[in-house]
Specification:
- The protein has one domain: Rhomboid-like fold, CATH 1.20.1540.
- The chain is 60% helix and 6% strand.
- The protein contains eight helices and four strands, in the order ααβαααβαββαα.
- The protein has helices spanning 11-28, 30-36, 49-52, 60-78, 83-106, 119-132, 147-162, 177-194, and strands at 38-39, 114-115, 137-140, 143-146.
- Strand 3 (137-140) and strand 4 form a beta hairpin.
- Helix 5 crosses helix 6 (119-132).
- It is globular.
- The N and C termini lie far apart (38 Å).
Length: 199
């Protein structure tokens, strides 16, 4: 019996493979992260950093969390829309995340001015799924739940870290603006550009 590879090929899964390979490269070359991370002081002369930071991660757990969420919600989105829409939302989420972090820093609300990770891109995809598939069943670590439940868990996770009740990565500052800003963007993007096409 031949393996049907086509069922596993999606823009989401290709992104995941690329990001994992990038993380492996990071472990071999410390300068790689410095060259491609988002940095407010360097992005004017190196605008590519707005997008390249989404391929970098600071910790294996950080990588796993983002890739697992992308696998679930990216493929869910692709099941109803083409790969172009997924990629557009993914990279726009990275852009909005960079802008959100910059605004927070300029307003003096926190932040370090540098960031890595696909959390902003994944948050945008998740935000779109919340609007489009709120009552759709998904499976998270073999537990079946609705997207609505995943949203509640996401909000609890953010609140616990913001108020220093629970720190998943001690000593690491999580850029919440890169989660919340892109999440809202993804929700609004789906509201105005995607929802009508699935009615």
């Amino acid at each position: 019996m031949s393996l049907d590879l086509k069922r596993y090929i999606s823009a989401t899964n290709i992104l995941i493979v690329i990001i994992i390979l990038t993380f492996i490269i990071q472990t071999w070359d410390d300068g790689y992260r410095e060259a491609f991370r988002f940095s407010i002081t360097e992005v004017i002369n190196q605008p590519y950093r707005i997008f390249t930071h989404v391929f970098l991660h600071g910790h294996p757990i950080h990588l796993f969390q983002n890739m697992y969420a992308l696998f679930i919600f990216g493929n869910l989105l692709e099941s109803k829309f083409n790969s172009k829409e997924l990629l557009k939302l993914f990279f726009l989420g990275g852009f909005v995340g960079a802008i959100s972090m910059t605004i927070v820093l300029v307003l003096g609300l926190g932040g370090s001015g540098t960031a890595i990770g696909a959390s902003d891109s994944v948050s945008a995809v998740f935000g779109a799924c919340v609007l489009l598939f709120l009552n759709t069943n998904i499976e998270v670590f073999f537990i079946k739940m609705k997207v609505r439940t995943a949203l509640i868990l996401f909000l609890i996770y953010e609140a616990l870290d913001i108020f220093n009740i629970f720190k998943p990565f001690p000593g690491v500052n999580i850029a919440h603006a890169a989660h919340i800003g892109p999440f809202i963007f993804g929700y609004l993007y789906a509201r105005f550009f995607l929802r009508a096409s699935i009615k």
